[in-house]
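Lay summary. Proteins are chains of building blocks that fold into shapes, and those shapes determine what they do. In this project we predict the shape from the chain. Here is one chain we studied, written as its sequence of building blocks.
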Amino acid sequence: MRAFNLDREGLPGGLPDEFGTRGGGVYALVLRLGARPLRMRVGALGVLHFKAGYYCYAGSARRGLKARLERHLRRSAKKKHWHVDYLRQRTEPVALFVWTADEAAECELSQAIGCLAEASVRGFGASDCSCLSHLHYFAGDPRGRLRRLRIPG
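And here is the predicted shape, written in a compact code that computers can read:
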């Protein structure tokens, strides 16, 4: 597992080349929503309410993991393809955890994060699986707890 603290050092020079252009894996993207709650439309999920705090999104890429992660980290205007694209426009990324594991580990990762979280956003990021959610809420900074996660690779 590789961990990146984005709020302190950012990612000067982008993600390491070890993620390559063809490689895949799973990741946890930690986003911080400022002091005010947020109400916004998220694609087909409709209008959702987000409390201030931290949100951890579990995702995967079969190929092109580096490109996927760099896309999530950009805030610039982009076509909203995934649920997280909506939330990302209104939040700041603070950490990124990456595992070089099979794409199937995404749901296992999300369930592990959900066990640590205070709440989950029903249906978010889970339109292609049977999980409750792939977005989980933490009132306080979850990085210490997430560092201890072990995902089989």
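What the prediction tells us: DSSP finds four helices and eight strands in the chain.
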